[in-house]
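Sample intake sheet
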Amino acid sequence: MTKSLLKYLFLISAILFLIKCSDNKNSNQAKAQIDSTIKTQDSLILIKDTIPALPVINYIFISPPKQNRYKFLIEKYDTIGAKIILALNRLDERFIRKPDSIVVPDTIINDKLLYSPFPKHIVLLESVKKILLVDQRIQSFAAYEFGNLVNWGPTSTGKRSTPTPNGLFHTNWKSKKTISTDNPEWILKWYFNLENFRGVSLHQYELPGYPASHACVRLLEEDAFWIYNWAEQWILTKDGEFIIAYGTPVIIYGQYDFKGIKPWLLLPTEPEKAMVNEDELNEIINEHILTIINRQEEREKILNPQLSLGN
């Protein structure tokens, strides 16, 4: 029996011993013994070698038939894959048939976050309970909890004549369905207001693959529904005149290049141009982080007054 095989068998025995002890009162002690046993250089190498690495995801263009294209994508990539492809191309089911070619990943894994253009973790946001970032350049949103990415999706922000304003906003009030003040025929589902006087909001509506809204942030229905249930509303005084606690912070930033190539179409050739990195985000977040933290603390005092008494 080789030396490496003996080490492997010893490691497996140690893990089995830990499992056996997990229901005992001495489980913490047993775990400490196992941890100290396997924390040798050779054992760490062995553990590392046994954990499969996530595949590198590359992107290609395909030109599927335009008729029943979404059905074709479901048949070829399953429902999960089809939804990922919609997000990558900033399109909804109605508009997926429009482009001649679409971007698809060479690997489909049931984890939407693997295809995110945003970093999985942002150190600067580790003290922030919840925050939404909306990047107009790449037409995407990201949701973070204590610095960890928990969701992302495509957007369609304001068209050139009615741009979406950049800056720090908060999720104010929400409605399952509301009627647009611009056109009574526009029904806006899972609506979350961001700017009460100007009507800027997050909501479900058509995603044609480019900025097309009247200053709002359009979303896929499943993303709008998710944000509707995830984000927090403002808290007003009894007369409704003043804000005493802000909702979830939302930072909208960046500029879309209406004359350039859509960034997500560069995924097969220049993927870095379709992404946003942590350094870029740190510069943007730094402008607002103190306000965000202060408002978060004020909200906690309103919701948990015993905390302020303890201070």
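Comment: The CA atoms of residues 157 and 217 lie 5 Å apart. Confidence is low (pLDDT under 50) at residues 1-12, 14-51.
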